[in-house]
Amino acid sequence: MPTPEESLAEAKRLSGLPPVVAVCGSTRFLAEMHEADLRETAAGRIVVKPACDPKTPHALWGDPDEAEALKIRLGELHRAKIRLADEVLVVGDHVGDSTRAEITYARSLGRPVRFTHPEADPDAPPGPATPR
User: Fold this and answer.
1) Residue 128 pLDDT class (50, 70, 90 cuts)
2) CB under 8 Å to 128, separation ≥6 — which residues?
3) How far apart are CA 11 and CA 28, in angstroms?
4) What is the phi/psi pair of residue 56, to 5°?
5) What's the pLDDT tens digit per position in 90-119?
6) What are the tens digits of pLDDT across the range 77-95?
7) Which CATH number fits domain 18-120: 3.40.50.450, 1.20.1300.10, 3.40.50.300, 3.90.79.10?
8) At what angle do helices 64-84 and 4-15 cross, to 10 degrees?
9) Burial profile 43-82: b = 16 or more Cβ within 10 angstroms, e = fewer
10) How far is C-alpha 92 from the geometric centre of its chain's CA atoms?
């Protein structure tokens, strides 16, 4: 019996869908995420990415209690986007705790992870030491 992930992959293959890319990264890189969305779309990929910037004032997260509940729901939704995706693209030159958790989750699912800034990969081997 195939797993749900295997069934989804087969359904996407049979329907002829183009590859799906989940964009991840800190919301401080929303402009870069938009640029990545444009480039990935132009390359023929379907893009899913964060749609909210909780640091920008908005009525949806104006109430602190609602904001915390929304943050949890958005995290669950983003993990669903990662499950839906064929690969993940991490945007930005900094990886914080939330993005690190998304990378770990994606890799646990066997999703390839690309970086706009490969040096930001928390699992990359350290580069050569810089001479002083």
Assistant:
1) low
2) none
3) 35
4) -95, 130
5) 999 999 999 999 999 999 999 999 999 999
6) 999 999 999 999 999 999 9
7) 3.40.50.450
8) 70
9) eebbbbbbeeeeeeeeeebeeeeeeeebeeeeeeebbebb
10) 11
Contact between 120 and 95 (Cβ < 8 Å): yes
Q: Which residue has the tokens 């991840």?
A: 24
pTM metric for this prediction: 0.89
Alpha carbons 46 and 21: distance in angstroms, whole number: 6
Assigned token pair, 34: 């938009």
pLDDT of residue 98: 92
Token pair for residue 27?
């919301």
The candidate with the shortest Cα–Cα distance to 69, out of 80, 54, 50, 81, is: 54
* DSSP-assigned letter for residue 58: -
Give domain limits for the chain. Answer: 18-120
Distance CA 28, CA 8 (A): 32
